[in-house]
Amino acid sequence: MNLKYNIIKNLEFENDDLLLKFFNIKINKKNIEKVFKSNKYLYEKFKKFKNKDFTKVGLYKFKNRNSLRNISNVKNLKGTIYTYSIQFKNELLYEDILEKIKERLKENKNTRKLIIRVADSFLDYFKSDKYKNIDVSCLNLIHYYNNNIKFIFRALDIKNEFFFDFLLLYYFFIYPIYRKKFVNITFYASTVQNIKYLDIILNKIINI
After folding, report:
1. Is 174 helix (H, G, I), strand (E, B) or coil?
2. If DSSP codes are grouped into helix, strand and coil, which group holds residue 117?
3. Which 8-state DSSP code applies to residue 17?
4. Which residue among 7, 57, 73, 125 sits deepest, i.e. has the most Cβ atoms within 10 Å of its Cβ?
5. How far apart are CA 127 and CA 194, in angstroms?
6. In contact, 20 and 186? CB cutoff 8 Å
7. What are phi and psi of 145, to 5 degrees?
8. pLDDT bracket for residue 2 (50, 70, 90)
9. At a CB cut-off of 8 Å and minimum separation 6, what does 75 contact?
10. Short-list 186, 198, 143, 205, CA closest to 14
């Protein structure tokens, strides 16, 4: 399935910011599940997202990946497993959050206040940067609109994580809300790593 996208703010240098929009997307859930099963690392993350399992079990063997470089130092992966993170940071179960979003969109399709906080506290980011002992989130916010969703990242690794992030976010945060509707998706990242791989990863995404 070919998806349309537009790079509103392109990347000029490493750690530059990016604004990217996908238009009228509707991906078959079974196609995503096939991709999950085709990659061992992705399938392990899928299982942990599904079970809201923030332990290191299953992912430790991938410790050489850039996103898991501090896995030996942290107690758990509470910042990495977003289905768990939103529960911890919003004091409501993942399923209940999504149900409330669906209900409110049905009641008021023009609402601008359906925001899921994923960001950690300043002190957690500070300790993670200085001591490398806390797993913090790369994703900061998820903002829902009628047939329109926005993901705001503090950091986005294009080469190693963006394709996987896209699939996991679609499966766990887009499909449950919009189901078989067409939806517009916006990604904003205030810092982006491995920028030269953007075209390669976008090509993989649009050909899911």
Report:
1. helix
2. strand
3. -
4. 125
5. 24
6. yes
7. -130, 180
8. low
9. 133, 135
10. 198
> How remote is the C-alpha of 137 from its chain's centroid?
10
Strand partners, 184: 148
Tokens of 121: 């506290």
pLDDT in tens, 113-153: 999 999 999 999 999 999 999 999 999 999 999 999 999 99
Question: Residue 117 is part of a domain; what is its CATH number?
Answer: 3.30.572
Q: Evaluate whether 83 touches 55 at the Cβ level (below 8 Å).
A: no
**How do 156-157 and 192-193 pair as beta strands?**
parallel
Of the chain, the end-to-end C-alpha distance in Å amounts to: 6
The helix (H) or strand (E) run that includes residue 142 is strand 139-145
Query: pLDDT tens for residues 157-191?
Result: 999 999 999 999 999 999 999 998 999 999 999 99
Closest CA to 88 of 46, 126, 57, 52: 52
Q: Identify the band that residue 108 occupies on the pLDDT scale cut at 50, 70 and 90.
A: very high
Domain that holds residue 108: 4-206
Domain count, the chain: 1
Across the strands, what pairs with 142?
116, 151
With cut-offs at 50, 70 and 90, classify the pLDDT of residue 3: low
CA distance 143 to 76: 26
Tokens (6 digits) for 129: 């940067």
